[in-house]
UniProtKB/TrEMBL annotation:
It comes from Parambassis ranga. This is Transcription factor 7-like 2 isoform X22. InterPro entries: Catenin-bd_sf, CTNNB1-bd_N, HMG_box_dom, HMG_box_dom_sf, TCF/LEF. One of its GO terms (molecular function) is DNA-binding transcription factor activity, RNA polymerase II-specific. It comes from the Eukaryota. PANTHER family: TRANSCRIPTION FACTOR 7 FAMILY MEMBER (PTHR10373), TRANSCRIPTION FACTOR 7-LIKE 2 (PTHR10373:SF32). Residues 354-422 form the HMG box domain. Residues 47-61, 321-336 have a biased composition (Polar residues).
DNA sequence: ATTCCTTTGAAGCGA
DNA sequence: TCGCTTCAAAGGAAT
């Protein structure tokens, strides 16, 4: 693990960590991105050659099919214009425009040591926290930034890192930049998607339901206990953000993504948050005590999917709750209550699923996915992940180190939260070797000469357009690839579906 | 409805 | 210790 200069000690910010994201670093970031994009491009081009040679029968008009049909721009343009105008007016300059359209506002400042030696948050960390939790009040030291943050908490969503995002029915494949506001967060997001600016470490976003009432309408009472809760869980790291059940306490960054809610999530309450990870990588005392009191040392009982605040922890997934409970309730009326109770118990046991902490790459993916999606027409995660994998390798050591460090803290916090948890638990939980067999079969098939991945030979691949390629989503590359650019590492399984990525670079 | 695909990294497990 | 496997996320596609 590379040692990061997390100290900084400079109240001006951790410059070393901001290289890629500060103003001048934006260029570097662009270069980096362009390099990776260029490399992607090169790969894709070569793939194109190969594919066009070997797969000439592939459909060439599928891209046209995939494209949304031309439609009236009036509403969208008007909306965009008015919103842009509003955003321009309200943009206090806190968040600068990204290098190019389609580049989300992503800043990864010094994650290793967000605290300055004096104990205060470094500006970059503040920015990061602010980014991750736009509504979070991370007290800055400077008056200016304080004011900026204050502005950011103003009721205007345009201020905030806030991705303005409207999804129009049938426009899921829109050129995203058409929706960008001043902050240009290129997200057209399905309601259940996770915005790139949401905390990286959201173990489970599935629970987030846009239909939740706005926070200010929430009764701040624990639904289970009926005991009033503090507005913010004081001991929960924002990196373990509140899962859906928590939306009531803390406005979710995606709050404004759901226009139909119509309820602004502002103003927000301040304070209550702490450092993303407890100082010195430990859960603070109060949290530890809470954990120790609520979490058995070896396993987390089902009801402990609720966190110390009664908030379900994002790492705990309780799928398939749905309406089955009601079914069972009904059936319990007819059948033996005891057997039903037993069944429910077993169900609950099965439902509790503490997910693995995300590794560095997963964190990176989570953050960058939306960006790649915005840059390309790709939507298939498999293809996106290929690109992300390349970009991951294209990252500098320092940049990767940030994610490694983040992942390390993630694991530590996970360990603190679930002392008895083991990855093995999730092994057994799923199908017991099903995939093992499949993979073995697959490998066997590969060894028999079937070298193309199933995906590559699927209908999807046939539908992947060779040409033309969508160009409108990409802007002209602001910078040529850096001279130090080096070819990407060999891919495990090159996939031609990357062709769907834009090649206009 | 479920599984696959695809990526990297962490962790488990058998040899 | 080594090598293999699973699982984290993601969502379209395939089954």
């Amino acid at each position: 693990m590379p040692q990061l200069n997390g100290g900084g000690g400079d109240d001006l910010g951790a410059n070393d960590e901001m290289i890629s994201f500060k103003d001048e670093g934006e260029q570097e970031e662009k270069i980096s991105e362009n390099s990776s994009a260029e490399r992607d491009l090169a790969d894709v081009k070569s793939s194109l050659v190969n594919e066009s040679e070997t797969n000439q029968n592939s459909s060439s008009d599928s891209e046209a099919e995939r494209r949304p049909p031309p439609r009236s721009e009036t509403f969208r343009d008007k909306t965009r214009e008015s919103l842009e105008e509003a955003a321009k007016r309200q943009d206090g300059g806190l968040f600068k425009s990204p290098p190019y359209p389609g580049y989300p506002f992503i800043m990864i400042p010094d994650l290793t040591s967000p605290y300055l030696p004096n104990g205060s948050l470094s500006p970059t960390a503040r920015t990061y926290l602010q980014m991750k939790w736009p509504l979070l009040d991370v007290q800055p030291g400077g008056l200016q930034s304080r004011q900026a943050l204050k502005d950011a908490r103003s009721p205007s969503p345009a201020h905030i890192v806030g991705p303005f995002c409207w999804e129009f029915p049938g426009q899921s494949d829109l050129s995203l930049h058409q929706f960008h506001l001043s902050n240009k967060v290129p997200v057209v997001q399905h309601p259940h998607h996770v915005h790139p600016l949401t905390p990286l470490i959201t173990y489970s976003n599935e629970h987030f339901t846009p239909g939740n009432p706005p926070p200010h309408l929430q009764t701040d009472v624990d639904p289970k206990t009926g005991i009033p809760r503090p507005p913010h869980p004081p001991d929960i790291s924002p990196y373990y953000p509140l899962s859906p059940g928590t939306v009531g306490q803390i406005p979710h960054p995606l709050g404004w993504l759901v226009p139909q809610q119509g309820q602004p999530v502002y103003p927000i309450t301040t304070g209550g948050f702490r450092h993303p990870y407890p100082t010195a990588l430990t859960v603070n005392a109060s949290m530890s005590s809470l954990l120790s009191s609520r979490f058995p040392p070896h396993m987390v009982p089902p009801h402990h999917s609720l966190h110390t605040t009664g908030i379900p922890h994002p790492a705990i997934v309780t799928p398939n709750v749905k309406q089955e409970s009601t079914h069972s309730d009904i059936s319990s009326l007819n059948s033996s209550k005891q057997t039903d109770a037993k069944k429910e118990e077993e169900k609950k046991k099965q439902q509790v699923h503490i997910k693995k902490p995300l590794n560095a790459f997963m964190l990176y993916m989570k953050e960058m996915r939306a960006k790649v999606v915005a840059e390309c027409t790709l939507k298939e995660s498999a293809a996106i992940n290929q690109i992300l994998g390349r970009r991951w390798h294209a990252l500098s050591r320092e940049e990767q180190a940030k994610y490694y460090e983040l992942a390390r803290k993630e694991r530590q916090l996970h360990m603190q939260l679930y002392p008895g948890w083991s990855a093995r638990d999730n092994y057994a939980a799923n199908q017991q070797g099903k995939r093992k067999k499949r993979k073995r079969e697959k490998q066997q098939a590969e060894s028999n000469g079937e070298k193309k991945s199933a995906f590559a030979t699927s209908k999807v691949k046939a539908a992947v357009p060779v040409l033309p390629l969508r160009t409108e989503a990409y802007s002209t590359p602001p910078h040529p690839p850096p001279p130090q650019w080096s070819p990407p590492p060999p891919q495990k399984s090159p996939n031609l579906r990357l062709n769907k990525c834009n090649l206009s670079h």
